[in-house]
Amino acid sequence: MKGYRVLDIGNLDMEYEWFLQRSERKVQLSKHLVVGEAANRTAGYEEYLAQVKGFIEG
Fold first, then answer.
1. 3-class secondary structure for 6-57?
2. How far apart are CA 29 and CA 16, in angstroms?
3. What is the pTM of this model?
4. pLDDT tens for residues 4-53?
5. C-beta of residue 44 within 8 angstroms of C-beta of residue 31
C-alpha cells in the first residue's frame, strides 16, 4: 500500500539444501541452528550479512 513490493522467501535456502542433499525428508541443517544477527556474526556469516539491504521490524 506504500509502493513497496516484498517477497518473503522464508525457508527457501533450507529447501534448496535438502534438494542438494537429495533428502527424502526434512532433516536438521547445522547452519540453521544460528538465529539472529549477533549469532550470524559469531558464526562468521559476514559475507551474507553484507548482502542484507534492510530490516523490517514491528
1. CCCCCCHHHHHHHHHHCCCCCCCCHHHHCCCHHHHHHHCCHHHHHCCCCCCC
2. 11
3. 0.46
4. 887 777 778 888 888 999 999 888 887 777 677 787 788 888 888 888 88
5. no
